[in-house]
Design a protein that fits this description.
By secondary structure, the protein is an alpha+beta fold. The protein is built from 25 helices and 26 strands. Strands 18-19-21-22-23-24-25-26 form an eight-stranded mixed barrel.
Amino acid sequence: MTLDELISSFASLTGDAIGIAFRGPGDVVGRMVWVNDAYVELFEYPRDEVVGQLTGFKNDPEYVEGFLSTLKDRFEAGENHISSETYCRTKSGKRIWTSVKLLTIPTETGRFTAGLYRNLTALKEREVAANEALAERDAAYLSSEITHSRMMSAINCIADPMAIWDADFKLVVCNAAFAPKLLNQTEPMPVGTSVDDFLEKAANSGLFSDAIDCEAEWAKNAAESLRAGPIQDITRFTNGEVYKAVSYQSPNGDTLVMSTNITELENERLSRESYARQLEEAHQVSRHQASHDELTGLGNRRFLTGALDRMNERLRRHGGLISALHIDLDRFKQINDTRGHDVGDHVLIAVAKLLSSIVANGDVLARTGGDEFVIITYDADGDGTYAHRLALTIIEELARPIYARGVEFRVGASVGIAATDVSAVPDLLTDSDIALYKAKSLGRGCVRRFSTSDFDAMRELKTLSDDILRGLEASEFVPFYQVQIDAATGEMVGLEALARWLHPEHGVLAPDRFLEIAEHIAVVDRIDQMIFEKALKECSKEFSSGFAPSLSFNISHKRLMSAEILKAAEAAAKYPGKVAFELLESIFLDEADDASRLQLDALRDAGIILEVDDFGSGHASIIALEQIAPERLKIDRRLIFPITQSERSARMVRSIIDLGRALDIEITAEGVETESHVALLTALGCERFQGYHFGKPNLLKEAIADWLQPEPDVQRAGLR
Ligand code: C2E
Ligand code: CA
Ligand code: CA
């Protein structure tokens, strides 16, 4: 067996590649002398291309120098067995990673080095992959650290508080603003704190307005809503700041809560809102003005219509009864005419206040005209007694004195009521108005419930009004005269002109048939003027020579204050006798104001005698009497009538007569009907008489016929 064969048989014991090199004493590097088949296979060089090559030929050129010098150092250091790893290159250029075990055998001629090579490439690749994976892990870890710190510095830059809570609502992370802003504390909140602990602390921090005085409840509710799911809460802090807290839930169960300071936005919104509110208020005011009466602040007709529509709707749905109360002030016109609009306005305001205090909560009160008010009541199951009771209360209350500008007035009221249990609302107001008219025609201060027969009265009113206007055009109003007798002499000393309507169909009509309606349609002053002109003409002619009795006219309030009356006073100068104006006592409700006093003075300057009519029926005060200083007072016939029966009435009349004497005012007694009236009144000191006892109102000739006979020598009074 040759050495070669021996080596080959040993070498076949292993699958490793084996190569043997020899280095002679003068050689720097050894040369290959023998390789096995595995070597040929591994390095892909045919055996004849290997043998004789320098030992480093198969090493990767990149590594060969380092590898060889290392080996050299180790061999020189006396190591005979060296294990190492290195890259080699096959003939085709493939780089393979091999383990190398080298054994050096020195001989006298030089050194044999046997090398065992194993291909570690696959192993090495796995190792590299593993190392790379490890490195990657390390890098990833490093980069997540960086990300985390970046994220933290980022969220710490956010001035508003934010936090992330895990699925159990334990704190995962929060930013720097969190604790100071939400807990009013500098030390950060530890990770892991439960949301309940946090909220409890927050509640007690004094920062949350809503939590004050209900801390525990607030914290509990806040925790509940946070757990329940996404929140969007706006919270006002006690320092005035406003935060909006919004929560987001991430798929992993975390909840991120961000609070954003929206103070500026919120304040802007609030100011926008308050602007909108102001605008709305302005709208409301203008709506209110459109539907309300400026003077009294009550609703007007338009408001009433709206309210009625709503009530009508209720009626349609729930049944019941709607009542309309039409209220008219009995004496407002007089107050307004005599005391001026300013006082009138104050009276209306006082009345409006009074009515407002009387009506119940659901009632609707409106002022629908000058001195006209309407109340609408809805009664779910009513029979109308409420409305009736309300009307009575109103009449009672308005009969009491009312104070306007510190002065007492008695306005009085009449009420018309209409009710409906079906939706016939437009008719309702017409009906109550008709009922009111009827109430007034029945005498003031009463309630009238609408009945269909009132329609007829209404129609009559309309006809009559038209008829009066026609009568005025046709000059059908004429004066009748009633004589006035001097108590001392029994002579006719005066005549009162009284209006009569010579109606083409109905004959002679007394004032009670037309005066009120004439007032209603505001033509009394025209009638007065017509009577005045006719009487003046007639009497001037009649009494052109000889004795001319005084001539008295009834003057309406409106006429008294008109410029017209001064012209009339001038015209009166044509009459040879005295002309007197009779003013209703109610004109002098109180101390007359300056305007009317001036007017009265002007009349007096024009030679007019002023008389107070119907004295004792109204409320004239002694002060007013003194101020106006009328020449004459006519005692109302309702006071005269009972004097012969009632001691008390007699005393009253006596005191009026005494008062007249004291104030230097002449006294006329009206309604003197009997001889005993004459006797008693004479005894009491009355100076003039007027009444049926001496003559009923009549045409001039007829009225004076009995009184102008020269010396009839009979007891005239007794004849009548
Ligand atoms: P008056 O001014 O008080 O007039 C007196 C009324 O008493 C008259 O009624 C007269 O007929 C009535 N009378 C006279 N003597 C007696 C008597 O002994 N017993 C009774 N029971 N009555 C007597 P007349 O004419 O119906 O007038 C009623 C009222 O109408 C008048 O009351 C007056 O306020 C008003 N009036 C009459 N004519 C005019 C006028 O031309 N203009 C104005 N504005 N009012 C007038
Ligand atoms: Ca009169
Ligand atoms: Ca009278």
